[in-house]
Amino acid sequence: LFDMPQEMARAFHLVENYGTEEEKASVNQLVREIVADDEGPDLSRKRHESQGVKSLVVHVSQACNLACTYCYANELNKANKLMPLSVAQQVVERMDKLSPSGLSSVKFLGGEPTLAWRVIEYLVTQFERQAADRGLDTPTFVIVTNGTRVTEAMIRFMADHTFHVLVSIDGEPTIHDSLRPHKGGRPSYSLAVDAVRRLVAGGVETAIESVYTRFHYRSATSPCDMMDHFRSLGVSEFQISLAVGTWHQEDLIEDIENIADLFEVATRQSVRSFRTAEPYLLRGIQFVLDGFSLREKRAHVCGAGRSFMAVNYNGEAFPC
Question: What is the rounded CA–CA span in Å between residue 237 and residue 123?
Answer without folding.
Answer: 26
